[in-house]
Structures are given as C-alpha cells and as structure tokens.
Amino acid sequence: MHVAQDFHPSADLCILHHDRTFVPASDIPTAPAGVRVLNGAAHDISKRRYTSLLLTPDSDWTGPVILKTNLNHFGAPERRDGKTVGSELRKTLAKLSWRLARRLPPKGYPVLDRIAAVPDWVWRNHDLIVEKFLPERHEGMYCLRGWIFFGAESYGYRMFATDPLVKVKSIVRHEYLDEPPGAPILRWREEMGIEFGKFDYVVHDGTPILLDANKTPSLVRGARSERVMRLARGVQPFLK
Fold first, then answer.
1. Mind listing the domains of the chain with CATH numbers?
2. Whole-prediction pTM
C-alpha cells in the first residue's frame, strides 16, 4: 500500500482520498496507464448538489428549518487551510452566540422553528444553506441512517438518539439494516460517481432523503468485524 500525494507507478488500483468537498480535475494525480481510480469522478459532494430540502427566503414552508454549511463536514477541512486570528476569534464567539458571530457554531447545525427566524446574513452567505428540517422519528427517538459502501459490498445501520441532530453523546442505541437504502439514495451514489463512501439519510413519510455524502469514510471501531471484512472484499472486482 502506498499513501501519498501521488499514485505509485506500479499500483494495481488507485483510490482518490482527498478530504475536500470540491476536487478539481487538475488536482487529481495521474494514475498509471490502464489503472482504475476509485472515486476519481467524485469532484463535487456539496450539499447544494443533492439536497431536496433547500429553501429560499420566499419559500412557503411553515415548519422548522435547519442551517448547514454547503461544504462537507462543517467545512472543517477547507477552514484548516485558511485559518486566521479573526476566523479563530469568530469560531470561539460562535460557541457563545452564533448569531452575533455571524458564523454557525463549530460542529453544529442550528434548528429554528420557522423560516422567518433565519438571519438575513445567512441567506447572503453562499457557503451556507437553509433546509426543511424533516427528522425521522421512532418511538419518541430521533433516527439517522447510514450506508457504507465499497463497490458492490455495503452495509447499513440506524441510530436512535434523544437529540434532533443525533449527536454521538445522545445516541441511545443502534441497529444494523439488511435492506438497501432505497432508489433515491442509490441514484445519488451513481450520479456523484462515488465507489467508496458513506451516506447519511433519513426516511420521512416513507421517502429516503439524503442528508450527507462522504467519500472519505473512516472506521474507529470494529475494523475486523464480519461486516467490515465483507465490505473490504468490495475491492476484489476492481483488481481483476
């Protein structure tokens, strides 16, 4: 295995693992002749590309809304490259009052009870989006589903939490899912060209809704579990 900023000249298979929302074609290193580059076509995983919940100031939506970054993972990878004293001060202030800081709180997406409560500066910031907040509920809990895939192999799960955003500390339990995530989710995987990744989604009134697309997933536990070992076998067809 070769992990670097370029592809090894004798590689049998290459995996593009750039932790960025947008990856210009000019930033992709040249692979050896005839060698497949997994995720090589996944140039854009911004939320504006796939969200079906996007709102504008003129939308007639009367329910709760959620404010998010257009960039993946709160825009953290991109922010690391552009840190300034001012940006760090705003980040600290946002922990106390994100409205005053004119910045979303670190690692958090505010949920507001109506569209009129969205500050004007949010609408003017193209790096932010406003969505309908449509949580999945089950027996009083908030649910978030995940689907991890590598080629033809995959597995799914559903987490149950007390927090509407299903934060780690609020998760009460989880279950593994045998059924596929549904046609809308499968279609987005194909359209975005992601061969190895993880999708977060909910099922609201029977409809699967994609919330987050990740092409650089990682596993912190259970790396030798049966599910993960089966997932790893997804690489085999690409090596033939």
1. 54-132 (no CATH), 136-239 (3.30.470.20)
2. 0.91
